[in-house]
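Researcher: If only I could read backbone structure tokens as easily as an amino acid sequence. Walk me, if you will, through where the backbone shape changes along the chain. I have put the entry right below:
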Amino acid sequence: MSKWLITGGAGYIGSHVIQELLTANIEVCVVDDLSTGLKERLPDSVYFYQGTLLKQSFLENIFKNESILGVIHLAAKKSVGESMLNPNYYYEENVLGLLNLIKAMNTQNVKNIVYSSSAAVYGEPLNPLVSETSLTIPTSIYGETKLIGEWIIKNSNLNSISLRYFNVAGAGDKKLGDTAANNVIPKVFKALSDNRTPEIFGDDYSTFDGTCIRDYVHVVDLAKAHVLAANALMTKKMNEIYNVGTGNGFSVKQLFEQIQKSTNNKFDYKISSRRPGDPAATVADVKKINKDLDFQTKLGLSEIVDSAWQAWQFRVNQK
């Protein structure tokens, strides 16, 4: 049976994608360097290769050993702040890693790829509702590497779908929670656990309550989008880009209100200065993915924060 190779499969998003693929009876194998991923997130039934995409011979051996039908490429470095401090590291990991992967795919004539891109490619959009045809002017090195990846795939004669993620959060299982220190929801949970006051960065934006507006998509809904994308590539020739979000935006203050409800904690928060490069509002126009892949999100902000809190508590209690 042909498999799909999941790069970065031991990560937060990758582990959810694997769950949804297995539920859809799609066999998988995983490569991850475990720099941020956790091996315990992987089911015992999934064959795991530990190593870096920067080592060409390592990748080529995987493609020789496995009968791979396609790749879901999630492996990447993703901290906006870190990318600005260390751009060459991000170009190496995110761009060179992708080039090596495509070379390895070509050795066994593997043509299908689902690419993990990001709303960061839009930078600071003029219109809060962004479609796939909106201008792509990234304001971070991370966003640049994701856009370069899209260009490489477009020009590589691959059967491809690039998914531009918006703000991914929540958990499909209490064991698969987000551990990223810079993502807003775990960042608030960490502050509360440390008895610190959570921060909102800027309340003077041109939005209804002055705080940034974002499109929060549940990681389970996002994972299901990868299954739809993989199935689409197995049935027809494509070279497409899709936003993955809900089409609805919530302000940071609204998010904090939901966190207060989910945690049953009416905590105080403080307003800090804006962070450079934060757009006032970014919301996904999802008409294209709704139409082409019949993708519909089913989980809202309350389910996102409730599930994230349950996973956080499980993680804390395991320590």
